Amino acid sequence: MKKSKGRTCRKRRRKQSRSLSLCGVNLSHKHEYVLLKKWLKERGYEDNKLRPAQFSETGRGLMTTKALQAEELIISLPEKCLLTTDTVLSSYLGEYIVKWRPPISPLAALCTFLIAEKCACKEESLWKPYLDLLPETYSCPVCLEQETVNLFPEPLRRKALEQRRRVQELFVSSQPFFFSLQPLFSEDVASVFNYSAFRWAWCTVNTRTVYMKHSQGDCFSRESNTYALAPYLDLLNHNPAVQVKAAFNEKTKCYEIRTLSGCQKYKEVFICYGPHDNQRLLLEYGFVANSNPHSSVHVGTETLLKYILPEDKQRHTKLSILQENNFLDNLTFDWDGPSWRLLTALKLLCLEADQFTSWKKVLLGNIISKRNEKKSLDLATKICMSLTEETQHALQKISLLKSDCQHLASQLTLVEALRTEDLKILQMSVEILQHLHSTTI
């Protein structure tokens, strides 16, 4: 009879399984990556410690073949490898951009170049090894179906619609410039520079560029010119727990990233895009981070208005004060409960007529009375419970849609992850508010 294995053996197997899941499947032998590394080498980049790999939890990323120590250089990408507005100006598009009035924006220039190179030049493009590895589709809100966007929390839904409006406006305003490029193409430029292609290019720039300052020439509009697409470097995924230093080094003329956290051999190397909550990550990059310490649930103005009593004669004045002092934005619940800004806004809204002259003290963080403290905590609890119910309802709706709308499965999974994290935060906030309430009475 075979001897059964004990608890220690099972624990060891689970630990090994978790460890293996963090190690990626090496992709460096694949033809497209071989071509990219050759292309990078021709431009002065050589590296033996990073390998493209497929990871079970994060998808495509970069794996280190040696242990990385704190302060060690992860990557140093020469300027020749970076795709910037300087690249665009030195291309066949340069003379058209210089002549065009009013000047186009740096963002529009980069989008135009990406479309021209990927959709029109194709095989002839000098950037083909990089372009071939760019995603064909993105999951930023501008690319999602309206049915999916409708499931967003209200503040994010509003920002998503604004994002869509901005992209559409940039596309429409860029069309006269696109038409001026007809001499460069045998195809009709209307079919080359269509909205679908433009949206793809916009998402590529928005999700994959690094910050790099450029001189503001007369050939571009006054809008920010800080974009740089960084081939290979842009395979590094985000992790909110890691710390890095990233900047263009004027001495070496390379874009460099140093790890402040270190990394174990054969593990995925991460960078941090910034201390962003999941709503910001979804809006700007099209993903959410599990167990994100920066996650928060935003309380929109519409939600606040539901809880202002119509008989409060000072409600309009209170809202005006909050607006003027920038206390209607960034009101949140997070892992520590209601934010100071949210509680402060609620304390002001809960001021009674005889306390209203103390509104400045409230904004400075002073306690007005025990009654005001209790009322504001009660209101915070009501809002938190309401958002909890709304989130639970959204999750139920997502569950039903996932079985009925298979074509939306990946989009719905994304929103489900966001809403699930929101629910955890709200449930924790309810417990924290109950504790605060018991210590205030």
Keywords:
441 residues; mainly alpha; set domain protein methyltransferase, domain 1; set domain protein methyltransferase, domain 2; three-stranded antiparallel β-sheet; 17 helices; 13 strands; 11% strand; globular; nucleus; cytoplasm; histone H4K20 methyltransferase activity; histone H3K4 monomethyltransferase activity
For the largest beta-sheet, the strand count, sense and barrel status come to: 3 strands, antiparallel
What percent of residues adopt helix (DSSP H or I)?
40-55%
**What is the level-2 CATH architecture name of the domain at 85-229?**
Alpha-Beta Complex
What is the H-and-E element order? Answer: HEHEEEHHHHHHHHEEEEEEHEHHEEHHHH
Our count of helices gives 17
* CATH topology type of the domain at 85-229: set domain protein methyltransferase, domain 1
> How many beta-strand runs?
13
Shape: globular
Percentage of residues in DSSP E strands = 5-15%
* Average pLDDT taken over every residue: 92
Q: How are the strands of the biggest sheet laid out side by side?
A: 1-2-3
Distance between the termini: 66 Å
CATH homology-level superfamily of the domain at 85-229: set domain protein methyltransferase, domain 1
What value does the Rg take, in angstroms?
26 Å
- Residue stretches low in confidence (pLDDT < 50, at least 5 long) are 15-21
Secondary-structure map:
Blueprint: H1 7-22, E1 25-26, H2 31-42, E2 50-55, E3 59-64, E4 73-78, H3 85-89, H4 94-99, H5 106-121, H6 128-131, H7 146-149, H8 154-180, H9 189-192, H10 195-208, E5 209-211, E6 227-229, E7 237-238, E8 244-249, E9 254-259, E10 270-271, H11 278-285, E11 296-298, H12 301-306, H13 315-324, E12 332-334, E13 337-338, H14 340-349, H15 359-363, H16 370-404, H17 409-440
Parallel strand pairs: 7-10
Antiparallel strand pairs: 1-2, 2-3, 4-9, 5-6, 8-9, 11-12, 12-13
Helix pairs in contact: 5-10, 14-16, 16-17
